[in-house]
Amino acid sequence: MELISHLSIGFEQALSIQNLLYCFIGVLIGTLVGVLPGLGPVATIAMLLPITFTLPPTAALIMLAGIYYGAQYGGSTTAILLNLPGEASSVVTAIDGHQLARQGKAGLALFTAAVGSFFAGTVATFLIAGFAPPLAEVALKFGAPEYFSLMVLGLAASVALAHGSLLKAIAMVVLGLLLSTVGQDLYTGAPRFTYGMIQLSDGVDFVAVAMGIFGIGEIIRNLENEATRRAVTSRVRDLIPSALEVRAIVAPILRGTALGCALGILPGGGAVLGSFAAYSVERRISKQPERFGRGAIEGVAAPESANNAGAQTSFIPMLTLGVPSNPVMALMVGALLIHGIVPGPNLLGERPQFFWGVIASMWVGNAMLLILNLPLIAIWVRLMTIPYRVLYPCIVAVCCIGVYSLNNNPFDVFVMAAFGVLGYVLIKLDCEPAPLLLGFVIGRLIEEYLRRAMLLSRGDPFVFVNFHERPISAALMVIAIAALVVVCIPAIGRKRGEAFRQ
Amino acid sequence: MHGVSVMPAFIRNPKDFCCGLLLLAIAALFAVGLLDLPLGSAFRMGPGYFPLVLTLLLAGLGAAILVNGLRRHGEPIGPIPWRGILLITLPIVFFGVTLKGFGLMPSLSIAVLASTFAAREWSPLVALTTTAALVAGCVAIFVYALGLPLSLYGPWVGGY
Description:
heterodimer; A: disordered C terminus; B: mainly alpha
């Protein structure tokens, strides 16, 4: 019953005219971002961050959250109609979704994606409402060692989930952490790594870093392989599926939702992981696995439900623990800190209206997205064919103005340009930039908690893994190490395979 | 692919080799900065302690990746898209340098127009219309609707 009273506080907030409007703007921009390739939610949220400074905090976060989960809806539309995933999280949707579209069943695929996402969004909203308060209560007992271990777990998870080389992913996290130490030292005020530049004494602005890597760096990469795009079907018919088709999608949507929710809560998780996991689960349990890749509707239903569920449940660690689990959440933390709100276990008690308002708005936003995406699909289809050479100058312009207006300082513009080049170089060298950004954002916190924990333990590094005194911290550390070990195993296997062939 | 021939034969995986070099170079840069930072002890960490650990880690990882580049075969890096890199970043730097002097209108127009040249299939009509519409849109949204404190014409062109 507590749940209902909490949610009613939330809906009261979320249904105010102002918040409805910002929720709508958020999901509209989100869908747009999802539809337009080469522009992801990280870059968009970074670009729009300066705009939200003038809004009240609840409206600001409602809008930013709307962009994130709205992008999951929009991304599936391009994946199905163009075989071009608008977002990383809809990569697997493109496999079967596009086959369905070529068979003239684009309507069914789009309907499935939208309804699956909506169902998953609804479940995830209630899950956050039920899960957040007990988690926040546990977190209230956390001391410095627990927080340190939790962040190590988050970083370990982001390494484990990165594609490609494990060494490179760890190196990216370390580089991110190292970059965060630039600027004044928290305890002594000593300038670190400023190399005589006064502008660096406040450190490197993380919005400039995010815009550089995910906005500018992406543009340089996309310009390398420009492609003209054509929609498969200019008209989408038969949106309403038959009873038989409905039966086929119910179970995959349920499984996808469950998987997405679970993986979204994990530190380092989010939308992308859930969709990949859901697709492989569906293929594994299917009686006719050969249908996958040739237009299996389960291959659309499960990952689309999972990515939306994951996008939303990844708010849980951010709101209750104050630990961002992916770059999008890192930007949200940044947005909140600017408004003077510190996300963490105290948030729920101190600002219940904000907390529940944001959660309730997610359900409202999902309902809006259902309307935006099904009847209005024709409009989005037309937007999809915007050529990239028109799109990227817009991204450049908005990034420039956005990053400048952060502090009204041209130095941030230069930082963005530099990180644009760095981001491109890293992608080119097969290094994923997401762990770097996560390390960068967590860096200051992790150092602070490390130093505090070491003061508490009088310099004993075993404080983090002492099962008697710090069971939670020790458990988190064990999970972190286990995550890395598990990832190592297939790498060992592959190496063995190579040796065998030689 | 002219990017291939530049690499000497002992580098089997150019991507790993270059990645290792890059990380080592960054670690070296931080090592220089570490010289004048007090380390403290594990009990009372000074400002240099945490960065020192990270710098050592980064150097170690960089070296390991570099060695990987010598041992295992891998794909070539491919040609470097100088056109894209220069025509995207230089306009941004130009914007940063001139915004206060020129004001938003001239500075943004030149930067955006220059960046349109980065596309391979460049067409003057698309470039000019995109720039014009974009600058008008940015001024409408950022200056008039959101009220960001940006002057349209700066002192260098007779504004304020």
